[in-house]
Amino acid sequence: MEGLCPECYLEENPLIEVPEDLEVEICAQCLAVKTGLGWREPDPELPDVESILIDHALSALEDEMKVLPGARVRLEPLEVKGEPGGPGSRVIVRVLADAEAEIDDVEISKRYLIEIPIRFSLCDRCMKHRGGYFEAILQVRSFRGELTEEELEEVMEFIRDTVPKLMEKDGMAYVSDSKILDEGLDVYMGSLASARKLARLIVQRFGGTVGESHRVVGYDHEKSREKTKASLSVRIPHFSKGDVIEYEGRPHLVLSLGGGGKPTLEDLRTGETVRPDWEELKGVRVLETERGVVIEENPPRVVLPSGRVVECHETDEDVKVGDEVRVVVVGDEAFILPDRG
After folding, report:
1. Pairwise CA distance, residues 79 & 66, whole Å
2. Same domain, 114 and 67
3. Does residue 1 sit within a domain?
4. How far apart are CA 201 and CA 188, in angstroms?
5. Is 315 contained in some domain?
6. Residue 36 CB partners (closer than 8 Å, separation 6+)
7. What is the pLDDT of residues 116-145, one digit of tens each?
8. Rounded to two decimals, what is the model's pTM?
9. Of 81, 112, 164, 267, which one has the fewest beta carbons inside 10 Å?
10. Which domain holds residue 186?
11. Angle at the Cα of 122 (from 43 to 120), degrees rounded to 5?
């Protein structure tokens, strides 16, 4: 130490140095931290806001703090002073740094109290979210033109369950607004890519088709290109798996909605299966089904709630006298259906 006592040596050669302008910028809404590479999400394992602030402060301190070669440093967070607020507010994270080193066979140490200011702002994503920014409108409609209340509620519940999962991979997958219209549902989404994913997932769940169009809304001079907004049109069928529809003049049982592909139908007269395009099914009629009781097995005869007795086509269903079955009557024909319940 060139003849200096430990105190004087440390005055000239501090074990650690922290930049005077060290400050951490954190989004007041999502608690992401601003770095040289953009905004970094907080560790999802951290239990509360204070833990997140401390974690961000320690990370910034470790990145910016200069340590004397050979010195060992232990950081201990003490407290967060002030209450986190909205954009423009500030808090202080106080950290105790114990540093020690061996210089010329002499062990020296010093304790430093470091105060790290945290400034709150809004990250780019949350700024857009708060400002109502959206890249795509997802329009959900029925083949019949209007969604029923039941269909609307099912679609809305599916969207509520799906969007948080999309946001785990795309922070812009938020819903900035939604509107219930006479003809259906409009959902405004911050991310076009996630809106496309959501549209595909809706079709996988409910069946139907997806269309996409774009309209010019301005010009981006910085990128020298037009600004556009996308509209994704999702049309879902007005029938479900297990329903009976009239297709090509004959009753068909809906076996599958296709999982994003073509649906699968079974011709109740011939037993053959077909996979038509969705466009062919937009105007089909859903046939009413009834529940009845089997009174004879061969041929199967069923008494309906009205008292009418109908003789049904042969079926692969295992039916016995006294069984309650689901039946569709088409003219003078009747068919026993698989029970969806």
Report:
1. 23
2. yes
3. no
4. 16
5. yes
6. none
7. 999 998 888 888 888 888 889 999 999 887
8. 0.70
9. 164
10. 132-236
11. 75
